[in-house]
Structures are given as C-alpha cells and as structure tokens.
Amino acid sequence: MKVEKWNAADDGPLSEAAMREKLESLGYRVSRYVYPPGTYFGPHIHDLDKIDAVISGHFRISMGSDSAILEAGDFVRVPRGAEHSAEVVSFDPVVSLDAVRVPKRD
C-alpha cells in the first residue's frame, strides 16, 4: 500500500475542491463523507477500484499487513477485491473523499 501525498508544487494549495478535481481527472467518481471520532469500518472489499483521500482529520487504513495513518492531503488506492479496513484515529471528524473508478462504457 502506497500513501500518496498532495504536492502543492504540482497541484496548488490543498483544498477539497482541488482534491476532488484531481481525483475526477484520474477517472474517479467522488463522494464526500464526514466520519465522527471512533468510526470504524471492519475488514471489507469493494468490487470497484477506489481511492480514499483525506481532507482533514486522521484516518487509519489497513490493507493486508500494511497500515498507514492518512492526514490532510494523503490518499491511498484500494484495488477492487483488496480486503481493507479504516478507522478515524483523531479527536476531530475526518472529512474524506471516497472515489470509485468509473467503469468505461463501450
């Protein structure tokens, strides 16, 4: 699992709108969620490729034997079928952009 960091030199100042635009330009459909402290998503899978991005707060993502705490500007790619879990580990809510790969149409 590779944590990707917001690059202000390439992408400009971090904002929710800028992160949304970046994810959409990569071919993802983006939804915004706010998770309160203590939120936990146990091990699960998705049938689409997705990206979990953090705008604020601290979100622990675990996939296989890897685990990372994402903070503002961080995102991680979760391949379809990869078992993973997530947990808010800050005293503040996490504002997250959940992005799923848009299937290509013929």
Q: Can you give a write-up of this model?
A:
The chain is mainly β. 13% of the residues lie in helices and 48% in strands. The chain has one domain: Jelly Rolls, CATH 2.60.120. It is built from 2 helices and 9 strands, in the order βααββββββββ.
Compile the SSE list and pairings.
Layout: E1 3-5, H1 8-11, H2 16-25, E2 28-35, E3 40-44, E4 50-56, E5 59-63, E6 66-70, E7 74-78, E8 84-88, E9 94-101
Antiparallel strand pairs: 1-7, 2-9, 3-8, 4-7, 4-9, 5-6, 5-8
Task: Briefly characterize the structure.
13% of the residues lie in helices and 48% in strands. The chain has two helices and nine strands; from the N terminus they run E-H-H-E-E-E-E-E-E-E-E. The strands form two sheets. It has a five-stranded antiparallel beta sheet, covered by helices on one side. A four-stranded antiparallel beta sheet has the order 3-8-5-6, with no helix packed on it.
In which order are the strands of the major sheet placed?
1-7-4-9-2
Q: Separation of termini?
A: 31 Å
The total beta strand count reads 9
Radius of gyration: 13 Å
Instruction: Briefly note the CATH topology name.
Output: Jelly Rolls
Which architecture does the CATH hierarchy give at level 2?
Sandwich
Give me the CATH superfamily: Jelly Rolls
Helix count, DSSP H or I runs of 4 or more residues: 2
**Element-by-element helix/strand order:** EHHEEEEEEEE
Strand content: over 45%
Quaternary state of the chains: single chain
Query: How would a crystallographer describe the biggest sheet?
Result: 5 strands, antiparallel
Helix content range: 10-25%
CATH class: Mainly Beta
- The residue-averaged pLDDT reads 94
Any idea how many domains? Answer: 1
What shape does the CA trace take?
Answer: globular
Structural class, by secondary structure, is: mainly beta
